[in-house]
TrEMBL record:
Database matches in InterPro entries: SRCR, SRCR-like_dom_sf
Keywords: Disulfide bond, Glycoprotein, Membrane, Transmembrane, Transmembrane helix
PANTHER family: SRCR DOMAIN-CONTAINING PROTEIN (PTHR48071:SF28)
Pfam families according to UniProt: SRCR
Protein name: SRCR domain-containing protein
Biased composition, class Low complexity, residue ranges: 383-395
Taxonomic path: Eukaryota, Metazoa, Echinodermata, Eleutherozoa, Echinozoa
Organism: Strongylocentrotus purpuratus (Purple sea urchin)
GO cellular component annotations of the record: membrane
Domain SRCR: 7-106, 112-213, 224-325
Location of the region described as Disordered in the Swiss-Prot/TrEMBL record: 383-402
Transmembrane segments: 333-357
Cysteine disulfide links: C75-C85, C182-C192, C294-C304
Length: 402
């Protein structure tokens, strides 16, 4: 399901070319070509995961119909989404469909794109080969492969998390790559080791996906984040609305809501545990959502039922939180616990060795002290002699230790 600000290309003669349409108020509409240029085209192509080097803006050959959503669009060319560029108010224009804007993007052999993600920086990986897009099998798919995909798409830094098991839905044939093995430093996915193109033993339930993190990524309406958690996989839920982050009240907050948050953040599988009562500390105003009611299958938290933006009867002591559990996180925890266990076992072994070594040493020999011969008559005159008889020696003397 598209979200506000999504774009698509229509009536193009080939992939990566066509009239630009943008989604707003639950309806696709066109864009007027006033001020439309190559910088605007670069943003559209980037949002659609196409190449941008030679992106070109022009007037559509085939006019569209319906609403004209945008006019006076002005992009720098570095934005990630077209609705992040400056433009006139939605629906305000002085154009006809004969002025509909279009773009032509770069598409080359081996190009990649992300499809069906809830945001442009995540989705199912598809690669272009023989003039057709196809999917990648998740056998051996890991973060090293994901980093290469993100780098090829223009993300800066060592970003990229692998998603597997058809996290972003199932694509359609062909399945082009299987057994991909990247070191993580390649510039393009096609440069990584893999089976021969088209040689695979997979189904689309194994379609590989990627989640690209980027510190420069623009916050979008309805985006969510986790704040002040004890790990990266948990925290207070905050949602972005009208240019500002705000919290969510925990009234009716449950695991179904938590699952939607985790899915929106790119976690795979049916993961998500709800936390309430300001578990991760109290946020600051505004409190955006209350009485959230998700079925658990929505792709974004904003699509769930709620009381309405800003309508609430809560304090920040009721800020909702989420704990997202993933296979990757579990592996890290298990690894740490294994390391601790091995360390304790080694310490115990060293202690036993030390004890055994100490016990095996010979005890020091006790040398008897010399004795002084004392006359028997002297000892017998002592009062204690009446209670403790002394054993006389053969010469009438007893031995008294000195």
């Amino acid at each position: 399901m598209p979200i506000r600000g999504d774009v698509r290309l229509v009536d193009g003669a080939q992939n990566g070319r066509g009239r630009v349409e943008i989604y707003h108020d639950n309806q696709w509409g066109t864009i007027c070509d006033d001020t439309w240029d190559n910088s605007d085209a670069q943003v559209v192509c980037r949002q659609l995961s196409f190449g941008t080097t030679n992106a070109r803006g022009y007037t559509a050959i085939n006019p569209g119909s319906g609403p004209i959503h945008l006019d006076g669009t002005y992009c720098f060319g570095t934005e990630y989404r077209l609705d992040s560029c400056s433009h006139s108010s939605w629906g305000q224009h002085d154009c006809s469909h004969s002025e509909d804007a279009a773009v032509e993007c770069d598409i080359n052999e081996g190009d990649v794109r992300l499809v069906d993600g809830s945001t442009p920086n995540q989705g199912r990986v598809e690669i272009y080969h023989n003039y057709q897009w196809g999917t990648v099998c998740d056998d051996r798919w890991d973060d090293s492969d994901a980093r290469v995909v993100c780098r090829q798409l223009g993300y800066s830094g060592d970003v990229g998390e692998a998603r597997s098991g058809g996290t972003y839905g199932q694509g359609s044939d062909p399945i082009y790559l299987d057994e991909v093995g990247c070191s993580g430093y390649e510039s393009r996915l096609e440069y990584c080791s893999h089976n021969v193109w088209g040689v695979e033993d997979c189904s689309h339930s194994e379609d590989a996906g990627v989640y690209c993190y980027d510190n420069n990524y623009n916050d979008l309406e309805g985006d969510v984040r986790l704040v002040d958690g004890y790990s990266l996989d948990e925290g207070r839920v905050e949602i972005f609305h009208e240019g500002q982050w705000g919290t969510v009240c925990d009234d009716s907050w449950d695991d179904s809501d938590a699952r939607v948050v985790c899915q929106q953040l790119g976690y795979s599988g049916d993961v998500g545990v709800a936390r309430s009562g300001g578990t991760y500390g109290q946020g600051s105003d505004p409190i955006y959502l209350d009485e959230v009611g998700c079925s658990g299958y929505e792709t974004r938290l904003e699509f769930c039922s709620h009381a309405g933006w800003g309508i609430e009867d809560c304090s920040h002591s009721e800020d909702a939180g989420v704990q997202c559990r993933s296979p990757a996180t579990s592996s890290r925890v298990v690894g740490i616990m294994s390391f601790v266990g091995v360390s304790l076992s080694l310490l115990t072994l060293f202690a036993l060795v030390a004890v055994c070594y100490t016990c095996s040493q010979r005890k020091p020999v006790v040398i008897p002290t010399s004795s002084v011969q004392v006359p028997l008559s002297t000892i017998s005159s002592h009062p204690a002699a009446n209670n403790t008889p002394a054993a006389p020696t053969s010469n009438g003397m007893i031995s008294v230790p000195t």
